[in-house]
Design a protein that fits this description.
Elements lengths: L11 H25 L6 E5 L5 H10 L3 E6 L2 H8 L8 E5 L12 E7 L8 H11 E12 L6 H14 L5 H5 L6 H10 L9 E8 L2 H10 L12 H17 L7 E2 L2 E19 L2 E9 L8
Parallel strand pairs: 1-2, 1-4, 2-3, 4-5
Antiparallel strand pairs: 5-8, 6-8, 7-8, 8-9
Helix pairs in contact: 1-2, 5-9, 8-9
Length: 297
């Protein structure tokens, strides 16, 4: 990501692609696609695709296959359409995970990275994924683990509530709504997947500084709502105040990179779920990775 401070120009979706995708989501996307193992010629659906990092990796893997990226956010899709990709063509569709606009048995692989926790009806979304998945297919998805397991994020939400008032961190805490791998496992089984297994994986992500981490949270994620109607000086004051308070929490467990006190390590656990529907019935493997990821197979 480099040591430069963020440039504030651009939409939230553009900033998300410019800073968050290279720093964070690409690492999880690579892991997700690796676990799902999309093969040449397969049809892949990426649910809640955002700016398309998972879909682009899948397109490269399936080569002559087909990839579809679906998201409810038109701004994210606009950025996705403008990004270069390799391999299979990608069809970008605006739509809801709760009502997938595809007939049954349309895909060999269904992917969903860090989206399930945001769906208003998670059970319905998973049933929809199962509906469009072929019996010989597999699904892979990921969600974040409890926020207390990611010290950098936990310090951030404590500071956010202190600066902007109680409950200001509700959106960020919502990313980490899955408290236990068993919770994800149960949802997948109820949706028609079986043979579920869960594993936790952790990665350490380095940011140039606490200030840069706070900037990306408040400028390139849904938390932009806190800054939307404020002047630029007001925005900067809030960012600086949250960063200062997050740094000051004495019990934060964010360690600094060796020899560089301005750099911040962000360790996070993720739940993975991998689902494989075979002739003997649907099966699912769930793996938890830093930030809580789940894969269904």
């Amino acid at each position: 990501m480099g040591d430069e401070h963020w440039q504030l120009e651009g939409s939230a979706a553009e900033l998300y692609q410019r800073y968050v995708v290279p720093a964070i989501t690409t690492r999880w996307a690579e892991d997700l696609v690796h676990r799902a193992q999309p093969r040449a010629g397969e049809a892949v659906l990426d649910v809640a695709c955002g700016t398309g990092v998972v879909a682009r990796l899948a397109a490269k893997a399936v080569a002559r296959g087909q990839v579809t990226g679906l998201d409810l956010n038109a701004g994210m899709l606009a950025v996705a359409r403008g990004m270069p990709s390799q391999g299979a063509p990608i069809n970008w569709i605006e739509g809801s995970a709760l009502d997938l606009p595809f007939p049954p048995d349309s895909f060999d692989v269904v992917l969903c990275q860090l989206g399930l926790q945001f769906f208003p009806d998670q059970e319905r979304a998973l049933r929809e994924m199962r509906r469009v998945l072929r019996n010989s297919g597999r699904a892979a998805l990921s969600v974040y683990s409890p926020i207390e397991r990611t010290p950098g994020a936990y310090a951030f939400v404590l500071a956010l509530d202190e600066v902007l008032g109680a409950d200001a961190s509700r959106i960020k805490r919502g990313e980490h709504s899955f408290t236990d791998p068993a919770q994800l496992e149960a949802l997948l089984k109820d949706a028609g997947f079986g043979g579920v297994g869960v594993q936790t994986v952790e990665q350490t992500i380095v940011f140039p500084s606490v200030l840069d981490y706070v900037r990306f949270q408040l400028l390139a994620t849904p938390m932009t709502v806190f800054l939307t109607d404020r002047t630029e000086p007001e925005q900067q004051a809030i960012i600086l105040s949250v960063a200062s308070k997050a740094t000051a929490y004495p019990r934060r467990q964010c360690s600094t990179a060796a020899g560089s006190p301005s750099r911040r390590r962000h360790t996070s656990p993720l739940h993975w779920a991998l689902v494989d529907t075979s002739a003997c019935g649907p099966t699912l493997k769930v793996t938890c990775i830093a930030r809580a990821v789940a894969i269904g197979r």
